[in-house]
């Protein structure tokens, strides 16, 4: 029953995000990226996990570009592997993979521990736990870590359920940044 509610919430949140006008998306992206930049400066994080955005997610590409210019910051992104992902250093060129997700080439370089993870969401439930696209990749990734980085959820328009939709393995953020 809970999974039906979660699936319905996911679908309605995706619809809501898809229908955010282009002008509003542009404006909201600018605000959220600025908030993320300020947060990163205050947190003094060195190793940062970001993501390569899909259309309904906060466009963090300008943030990635700015962070890469900073020698004291390392930018990592997910590289899908099976049911989860590993982190690889962000570098060009990007290739389109499963689910339309772009990612850099695989890397055999062992990534450092990440200090900060900026994670896109489809929505959150009453407990503030992440509702994503339903594949569980982020949940599996964070479950495998033997440490806990600071997690920040991002979303263009906050989609929050008044019900508990999450399972106990769903991740929770330290912070949520939206417009």
Automatic annotation (TrEMBL):
It catalyses: (6S)-5-formyl-5,6,7,8-tetrahydrofolate + ATP = (6R)-5,10-methenyltetrahydrofolate + ADP + phosphate. One of its GO terms (biological process) is folic acid-containing compound biosynthetic process. Keywords: ATP-binding, Ligase, Magnesium, Metal-binding, Nucleotide-binding. It comes from the Bacteria. Its EC number is 6.3.3.2. One of its GO terms (molecular function) is metal ion binding. ATP binds at residues 6-10, 130-138. The keyword Metal-binding applies. Substrate binds at residues 52, 57. Its cofactor is Mg(2+). InterPro entries: FTHF_cligase, FTHF_cligase-like_sf, NagB/RpiA_transferase-like. Belongs to the 5-formyltetrahydrofolate cyclo-ligase family. PANTHER family: 5-FORMYLTETRAHYDROFOLATE CYCLO-LIGASE, ATPASE INHIBITOR/5-FORMYLTETRAHYDROFOLATE CYCLO-LIGASE. This is 5-formyltetrahydrofolate cyclo-ligase. It comes from Arcobacter venerupis. The gene is fau.
């Amino acid at each position: 029953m809970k999974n039906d509610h979660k699936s319905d919430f996911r679908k309605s949140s995706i619809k809501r995000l898809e229908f955010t006008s282009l002008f509003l998306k542009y404006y909201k992206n600018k605000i959220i990226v600025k908030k993320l930049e300020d947060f990163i400066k205050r947190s003094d994080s060195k190793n940062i996990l970001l993501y390569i955005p899909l259309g309904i997610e906060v466009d963090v590409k300008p943030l990635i570009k700015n962070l890469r210019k900073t020698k004291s910051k390392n930018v990592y992104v997910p590289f899908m592997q099976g049911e989860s992902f590993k982190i690889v250093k962000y570098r060009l060129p990007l290739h389109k993979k499963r689910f339309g997700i772009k990612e850099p080439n695989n890397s055999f370089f062992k990534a450092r521990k990440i200090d900060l993870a900026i994670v896109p969401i489809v929505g959150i439930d009453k407990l503030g736990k992440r509702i994503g696209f339903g594949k569980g990749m982020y949940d599996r990734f964070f479950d495998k870590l033997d440490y806990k980085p600071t997690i920040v959820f991002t979303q263009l328009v906050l989609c929050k359920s008044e019900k508990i939709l999450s399972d106990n393995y769903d991740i929770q953020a330290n912070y949520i940044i939206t417009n």
